[in-house]
């Protein structure tokens, strides 16, 4: 018999019994990080049953993806004979999250070699070494809060961190003006409070005096209510109070969100009967820890609010630089566009930037119903890229009004971009790098004529658009890519060529213009990125599938074609040509005064056939007469008096006939030749203008009849507008004169300017075109 205090005869507990009864997770892994043993507490802590993870990697414990690198570091360090300690985020099979504090040591063979790894783990905040774990958890929370600058994402990360590990209920209320609004209402197990009880997200919140949240804001310190049964607090409403009693709220901590002396709001955590916990009450350590967490949350929220304000300002700035939400109505075209900014944190070494970028697009009404279309991308992101984009759009709109070919417009725009270089003083003073180079801009400019269906374009280093014809999708072929605008900096030699190209679009054809943000750096599920060609193929397939729908459907399909978050802002413009032919009348006349009435008669017949009201048709015919008369007057050749020029020659020795040598007869020029000379200036009259067989300066030149002058009248009808164009071979562009009271002429273009909706003149390949437009109805 054993006496009191003496050891029993047999004291033996099997190791398996000890491991399964201890309140500590024990995980044993081999040298390849595969789990070979896990005790009962480990199954409860990590949420797996039986031997589900035996033989699998340590990652099968539910280690969050963000901690995979940390788990690899653990294995490497311990297998070298070291000791490792840290905090993991684990995702259980039921979807809940648990933070664990792990301590790993080597598993040694009797020979001294390291055979594996032994990991001891407990739930964070529930071990005996709270002070050590406090630093680990604060580090983890700081990492999660630093992962985003978007307010909603930041608040979601806060709730995911605190529920259900630290609380069954999490509420975050933020000030907007002088009122509190509920921004987060998160509960364990995806439970939701009944409507009309606790305030929902977006609703205002008003805490009565004496409420623990009101006390926290008044004291500017965390308030702990260890046992809610012993303390009764006034509730915002009776229904919210009843729900708190029904849920069995046991303990609450409320902490103010205070940063830079400014009160942003309040965060409250509560424990209830939603989950079963060994100790459903907070204590002083929890209050201090969650108070420290609240200070970090307040800083993250403040940063997010500041960034959101900056982003809203930048996006509003860019929104007013780009066209409006809806494209203007255009004859013969359906248009849809879409612009999406990039995520702000995907900056790849350029620092945190706003979503504003340099992608741009525009639709520019030109003369006679023609339309200018542009898509482009300024390198970089941020306010500078947006400012350059705004200047480019304004400059291109101004240049486009000259109605010159697209290649000429791009040459002019390139010259303008290169003038944007300016010296800036850097912090280190002046040096050779102080000159800020011009921005690089890719751009394609199109001019489309819906009546002839001709598309003219020139490219400056931009990706070719997709074209859909009869359901087949391909890229619009560019003969030349062209250099990007601003590529040739001041002082650099060489010339950037922009080639003029044309294409004819069939009825119902669709063009999809886009910027490279649509196909660049889209992440795959494995962490890699799609190549540009893979992204292009996905966009082609999506556009082909949606080609039978409207232009909005095509734009949406193109944007959604490549999965993953966009790394750069994206602009998409979709245009579709009309299936029907547009009304047009055209005729060529000789430039004689009698033809003015003929041109007016043609216009009157066309306007009547198009259903124009009599009053409006009369006005249109008047303006036709004025423009045609102006063309006829200036196209008619004005006769000039016959001219004779005598070239004096110094007298020389007498010749055989008694006349001085070197004294030829006077050289005479007839009127036509003299008039022709008047038309040339300087180098315009080159040597190749002469032919010895045609020009004999020693003979009297015979008078030649001038070629017959002609003009062409073209009338176009749109949905609610009529355009009149008069073409002639005179290169001189008309201008409005200030006619005096007694002048007989000089008022024709003034009438056109006052009575037409718009008017102008543009150069053509063989002369000019004067045009004006009028509405079909006054």
UniProtKB/TrEMBL annotation:
InterPro entries, alphabetized: Bact_Sigma-Reg, GAF, GAF-like_dom_sf, HATPase_C_sf, PAS, PAS-like_dom_sf, PAS_4, PPM-type-like_dom_sf
Which domain of life does this protein belong to?
Answer: Bacteria
Q: Is this entry keyworded Zinc?
A: no
Family matches, as Gene3D superfamilies: 3.30.450.40, Histidine kinase-like ATPase, C-terminal domain, PAS domain, PPM-type phosphatase domain
Q: Where is the PAS domain?
A: 18-82
The entry's protein name is: SpoIIE family protein phosphatase
* Classification via PROSITE patterns: PAS
Give the matching CDD domains.
Answer: HATPase_RsbW-like, PAS
SMART domains reported in the protein's UniProt record: GAF, PP2C_SIG
Ordered alphabetically, the record's keywords are: Hydrolase
């Amino acid at each position: 018999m054993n006496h009191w205090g003496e050891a029993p005869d047999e004291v033996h507990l099997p190791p398996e019994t000890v491991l399964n009864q201890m309140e500590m997770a024990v995980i044993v892994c081999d040298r390849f990080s595969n789990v070979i043993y896990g005790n009962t507490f480990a199954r409860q802590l990590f949420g797996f049953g039986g031997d589900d993870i035996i033989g699998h990697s340590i990652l099968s414990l539910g280690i969050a993806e963000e901690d995979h690198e940390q788990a690899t570091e653990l294995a490497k360090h311990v297998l070298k004979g070291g000791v490792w300690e840290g905090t993991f985020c684990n995702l259980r099979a039921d979807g809940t999250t648990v933070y664990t504090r792990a301590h790993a040591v080597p598993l040694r063979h009797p020979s001294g070699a390291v055979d594996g790894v032994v990991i001891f783990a407990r739930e964070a905040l529930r071990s005996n070494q709270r002070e050590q774990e406090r630093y680990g958890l604060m580090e983890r929370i700081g990492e999660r809060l630093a992962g985003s600058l978007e307010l909603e994402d930041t608040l979601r990360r806060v709730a995911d961190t605190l529920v259900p590990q630290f609380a069954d209920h999490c509420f975050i209320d933020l000030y907007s003006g002088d009122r509190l609004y509920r921004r987060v209402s998160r509960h364990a197990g995806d439970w939701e409070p009944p409507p009309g009880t606790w305030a929902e997200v977006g609703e205002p919140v008003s805490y009565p005096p004496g409420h623990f949240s009101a006390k926290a804001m008044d004291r500017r310190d965390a308030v702990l209510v260890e046992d809610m049964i012993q303390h009764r607090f006034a509730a915002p409403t009776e229904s919210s109070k009843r729900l708190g009693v029904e849920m069995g709220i046991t303990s609450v901590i409320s902490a103010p969100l205070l940063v830079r002396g400014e009160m942003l709001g309040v965060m409250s955590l509560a424990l209830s009967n939603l989950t079963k916990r060994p100790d459903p009450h907070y204590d002083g350590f929890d209050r201090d820890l969650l108070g420290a967490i609240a200070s970090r949350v307040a800083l993250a929220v403040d940063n997010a609010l500041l960034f959101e304000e900056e982003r809203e300002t930048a996006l509003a700035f860019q929104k007013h630089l780009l066209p409006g939400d809806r494209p203007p109505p255009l004859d013969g075209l359906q248009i849809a566009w879409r612009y999406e900014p990039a995520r702000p944190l995907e900056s790849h070494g350029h620092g945190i930037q706003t979503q504003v970028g340099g992608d741009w697009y525009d639709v520019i009404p030109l003369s006679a119903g023609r339309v200018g279309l542009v898509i482009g991308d300024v390198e970089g992101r941020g306010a500078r890229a947006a400012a350059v984009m705004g200047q480019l759009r304004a400059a291109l709109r101004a240049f486009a009004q000259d109605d010159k070919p697209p290649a000429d417009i791009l040459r002019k725009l390139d010259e303008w971009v290169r003038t944007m270089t300016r010296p800036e003083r850097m912090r280190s003073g002046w040096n050779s790098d102080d000159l800020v180079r011009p921005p690089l801009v890719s751009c394609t400019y199109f001019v489309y004529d819906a009546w002839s269906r001709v598309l003219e374009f020139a490219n400056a280093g931009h990706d070719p658009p997709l074209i859909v014809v009869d359901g087949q999708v391909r890229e619009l072929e560019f003969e030349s890519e062209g250099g990007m605008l601003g590529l040739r900096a001041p002082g650099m030699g060489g010339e950037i060529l922009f080639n003029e190209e044309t294409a004819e679009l069939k009825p119902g054809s669709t063009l999809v213009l886009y910027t490279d943000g649509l196909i660049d750096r889209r992440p795959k599920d494995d962490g890699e990125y799609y190549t540009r060609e893979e992204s292009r193929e996905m966009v082609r397939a999506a556009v082909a599938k949606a080609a039978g729908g409207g232009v909005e459907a095509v734009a949406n399909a193109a944007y959604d074609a490549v999965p993953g978050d966009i790394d750069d802002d994206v602009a998409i413009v979709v245009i579709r040509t009309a299936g029907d032919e547009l009304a047009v009348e055209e005729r060529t006349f000789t430039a004689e005064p009698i033809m003015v009435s003929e041109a007016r008669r043609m216009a009157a017949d066309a306007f009547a056939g198009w259903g124009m009201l009599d009053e409006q048709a009369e006005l249109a015919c008047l303006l036709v007469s004025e423009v045609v008369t102006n063309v006829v007057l200036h196209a008619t050749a004005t006769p000039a008096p016959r001219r004779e020029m005598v070239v004096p020659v110094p007298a020389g020795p007498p010749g055989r006939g008694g006349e001085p040598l070197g004294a030829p007869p006077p050289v005479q020029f007839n009127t036509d030749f003299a008039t022709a000379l008047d038309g040339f200036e300087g180098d315009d009259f080159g040597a190749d203008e002469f032919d010895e067989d045609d020009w004999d300066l020693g003979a009297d030149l015979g008078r030649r009849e001038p070629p017959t002058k002609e003009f062409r009248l073209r009338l176009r009808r749109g949905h609610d507008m009529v355009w009149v164009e008069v073409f002639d071979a005179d290169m001189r562009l008309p201008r409005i004169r200030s006619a005096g009271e007694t002048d007989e002429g000089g008022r024709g273009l003034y009438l056109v300017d006052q009575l037409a909706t718009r008017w102008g003149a543009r150069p053509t390949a063989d002369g000019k075109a004067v045009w004006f437009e009028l509405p079909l109805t006054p």
